[in-house]
Amino acid sequence: MKQSDVFRENAENCLQLAERADGQPTFKRYVRMAKAWMALAEEQDWLDGEVPPLTIKTA
C-alpha cells in the first residue's frame, strides 16, 4: 500500500471520529486532523511523482 493511501485512511478515520464527537471543539479538532492527513497524502503523491508540480501561469 502506498504511503499516501495510508494517509488517506487516517483522514477517513478522523472524519469517522468527528461524526461521533461529543462536542463542537472535538468535532473541529478531528476535522482539522483529517484535513492535515489529506494534505500529507497530496504532498506524498507529489513526492512520489504521481502528481505533476503546480504550474503558476503569469499574464
Overview of the molecule:
The chain has 59 residues and is mainly alpha-helical. It has one domain (3-47). The protein has helices spanning 3-19, 24-47. The chain is elongated.
Largest sheet: none
**Residue fraction in strands:** under 5%
Number of strands: 0
Structurally, the number of domains stands at 1
Structural class: mainly alpha
Low-confidence stretches: none
Ends apart, CA distance between termini: 41 Å
Q: How many whole angstroms does the radius of gyration measure?
A: 15 Å
Strand/helix succession: HH
- Approximately how much helix is present in the residues? 55-70%
Concise description?
This protein has helices at residues 3-19, 24-47. With 59 residues, the chain is mostly helical. The chain is elongated.
Record keyword descriptors for this entry.
single chain; 59 residues; mainly alpha; 2 helices
